[in-house]
Amino acid sequence: MLAIVGGRVVPIEAAPVNVGTVLVDNGRITAVGADVAVPAGAKVVDAAGAWVLPGLIDAHTHLGVYEEGDGWAGHDMNEMTDPNTAHVRAIDAINPADTGFRDAIASGVLAVNVQPGSGNPIGGLTVAVKCHGRTVDDMVLRQPSGLKSALGENPKRVYGDQHKMPMSRLGTAAVIREAFVKAENYLRGEDDPTRERDLRLEALARVLRKEIPWRQHSHRADDIATGLRIAAEFGYDLVIDHGTEAHLIADVIAARGVPVVIGPVMGSRAKVELRNVSLANPGILAAAGVEIAITTDHPFLPIQHLIHQVAFCVKEGLDRETALRSVTLTPARVLGIADRVGSLAPGKDADLCLWSGDPLDPMSRVEKAFVDGVEVFSR
Q1: Which CATH number fits domain 1-54+342-379: 3.40.50.300, 2.60.40.1180, 2.30.40.10, 3.40.50.620?
Q2: Residue 288 in contact with residue 251, Cβ under 8 Å?
Q3: Spatial distance between the Cα atoms of 136 and 132, rounded to a whole number of angstroms
Q4: What is the pLDDT along the chain (379 residues), one digit of tens a residue?
Q5: Distance (Å, rounded) from C-alpha 58 to C-alpha 165?
Q6: CA–CA separation, 51 and 16 (whole Å)
Q7: Which GO molecular function entries does the Swiss-Prot or TrEMBL record give (predicted)?
């Protein structure tokens, strides 16, 4: 049994406790509060002066499939040989030895969603994992956690260069719609014992059954509107990824109840789709009633800057409570793992960090990190 005592405990789903205790047994949180009795024989961690928070969560990364410092050998996030690769799985390409996982833990990020890239209109199955483990199978929180799709410039460029469909936005939308029509037809034959398995259509069928969400890469407002339109046509659960111009149609997104995993919001305007990138975007969306999570899209913005983005967004108008939820409980809900992580509450996994001070203060840093109640990092 582990007892973390004396710190400022920020549970996320409840009010902060100025001098609190988090009690852990068998990798799960058993108690959180100001008047928690520490059982005899418990290992005590003195957190006096520290802030105790759940591990941060980044809902859109390429950790482990786009390894840093390995060049071509570590780039496994895009199977750009067919516009529809719904059947490929991020889990099959993750290298837990990617240095990005160590950077994540040291900066308080203890869980991430790993996505295929955005080279294809339909890119493949995503997976939610913890950032610590010897094999990816040890790390899995939810497999699959979604199906990646891309609108906009990336698939248009990739297949335009190959002089094949899709070479345009209308072609990209047609590829997606045609794939869903085939999946609908596939579902109609579920009771046919002679039907052959089709891994692409099985993946798409999981989206149509609402078992997993459709993760729609879209930066421009018109691409976001296309994502909303196709989702309405086929009736699946939608998550907008990036949403660089989402603030331009915030009311439309809010009315549909679609969450936005927004970011990165720090960086250059490296392509035309990013001309309206803004640190104010998350605050505008949240004020309009859109549920937001903030992402680094690692390695495009290194994972260790997740909390820095959040702090800068608060500076530009995002309220503090929503800001902390945007990298804890909200991404956990988007990923379907909120029963295990995202807040400090009895029954949840003991994935938490001790910070030297307010995590939104750029001078604060992670002093200790625990995954399943085991210390995996100490400064």
Answers
A1: 2.30.40.10
A2: yes
A3: 9
A4: 999 999 999 999 999 999 999 999 999 999 999 999 999 999 999 999 999 999 999 999 999 999 987 788 889 999 999 999 999 999 999 999 999 999 999 999 999 999 999 999 999 999 999 999 999 999 999 999 999 999 999 999 999 999 999 999 999 999 999 999 999 999 998 888 888 999 999 999 999 999 999 999 999 999 999 999 999 999 999 999 999 999 999 999 999 999 999 999 998 888 889 999 999 999 999 999 999 999 999 999 999 999 999 999 999 999 999 999 999 999 999 999 999 999 999 999 999 999 999 999 999 999 999 999 999 999 9
A5: 33
A6: 10
A7: hydrolase activity, acting on carbon-nitrogen (but not peptide) bonds
Both tokens assigned to 255: 């009315």
Q: Which CATH architecture has domain 56-341?
A: Alpha-Beta Barrel (3.20)
Q: In what order do the strands lie in the sheet with 122-130?
A: 56-61, 109-114, 122-130, 140-150, 214-218, 238-242, 260-262, 292-294
**Amino acid identity for residue 162 in this structure:** Q
Give me 13's structure tokens: 């789903």
Please indicate, yes or no, whether the overall pTM of this predicted structure exceeds 0.85.
yes
